[in-house]
Amino acid sequence: MDKNSKVYIAGHRGLVGSAIVRNLKSKGYEQLILRTSKELDLRNQNAVQQFFEKERPDYVFLAAAKVGGILANATYPAQFLYENLMIQSNVIEAAKQNKVKKLIFLGSTCIYPKLAPQPLKEEYLLTGELEPTNEAYAIAKIAGIKMCNAYNKQYGTEFISVMPTNLYGPYDNFDLETSHVLPALMRKIHKAKVNQDESFVVWGSGSPLREFLHVDDMADACVYLMENCNAEQIDEFVNIGTGKELSIFELAQTLCKVIGFEGKLEFDATKPDGTPRKLTDVTKLHQLGWHHKIELQRGVQDTYKWYLENVANYD
Ligand code: GDP
Predict the structure, then answer these.
(1) Which of 28, 65, 69, 102 is the least buried, fewest Cβ under 10 Å from its Cβ?
(2) Which helix (H) or strand (E) holds 305?
(3) Which pTM value belongs to this model?
């Protein structure tokens, strides 16, 4: 990838896409192609084809998707399936037709079976039933992985799939109904502190184990793979994570420390726990030569600073 290559980042306003843009800019890539969803509806096949024919990107980061936390996934399964299948099919097919040199498709570790052994190795894909709370999203993402592989096999393309663990960082979604746990708890704890409440509410039992990766690390991994690895080396797909986990309870405690809230946690047992554990095996990623750099404590401090400057003031 030379610095004058035309690079299209689909979903550049999202958590991951915006981090990829920051990373590419910091490395001196100058020809970034960006479109908001208003400017280009990726669910519309004709619009996507016209866009690719006109812009002819050399490289594509496919970070556009309908995403959300445990409640959003369970509430809008039709939209999660339809929108994701359309977006990825349109972009992957247009990338092939317009001879894109390399494409990175972003999925998530929720593609793994609910009760897969831990840590999750890439080979556990499709070895058991999915977690019901995010089945629709997972099915769409599994279709995306298979589509990239099928295109590589049949057309000789270089379409790579990456499966990040739970991500967090600047430009995350802090909406309490649709967000993931880390931004949701950050906002709840911040509000509890400001309002001098005695406690805040944690959904579920607090016992599920999760792994968290700062989105700047995620972007760095994606750009690293785009620059250095090909589809054959990556094989079906590669996990992107830290290989470290903690319980939701411990996460809440870490957030309380960073935010400076000394009140109590209350658990809302009417909300789902989701999958009991979700830890990636990062052996393959390390073998490919990439390792995470931002530990949780520092990542949370950085994200809280961003939240205070960009969200809390307008809340
Ligand atoms: P998941 O990793 O796909 O299950 O998605 P989430 O990040 O939404 O949830 C992870 C875990 O955190 C689940 O066990 C949730 O029940 C729990 N959790 C605790 N409090 C919250 C909250 O305020 N919002 C969300 N989204 N999850 C929460």
Answers:
(1) 28
(2) helix 296-310
(3) 0.95
**Which residue type occupies 50?**
Q
Task: Return d(Cα 33, Cα 13) in angstroms, integer.
Answer: 12
DSSP element (H, E) containing 106:
strand 102-106
Name the residue among 129, 158, 162, 157 with its Cα closest to residue 144: 162
What is the average pLDDT across 152-179? 96
Distance CA 144, CA 95 (A): 13
User: Residue holding tokens 């999203």?
Assistant: 137
Ligand 1 centre distance from Cα of residue 207 (Å) = 11
Ligand 1: residue of 180, 246, 266, 278 to mutate (most ligand atoms within 8 A of CB) is 180
pLDDT one-digit tens code per residue, 168-178? 999 999 999 88
With tokens 């658990």, the residue in question is 267
256/302 Cα distance (integer angstroms):
14
Domains of the chain, each with CATH number or no CATH: 7-167+212-240 (3.40.50.720), 171-210+245-277+296-314 (3.90.25.10)
Name which of 11, 52, 1 is nearest 31 in CA terms.
1
Q: Is 137 marked active-site?
A: yes
- Distance from residue 202's CA to the centre of ligand 1 (Å): 8
- Measure Cα distances from 67 to 10, 127, 182, 196, 293 in Å: 14, 24, 15, 32, 25
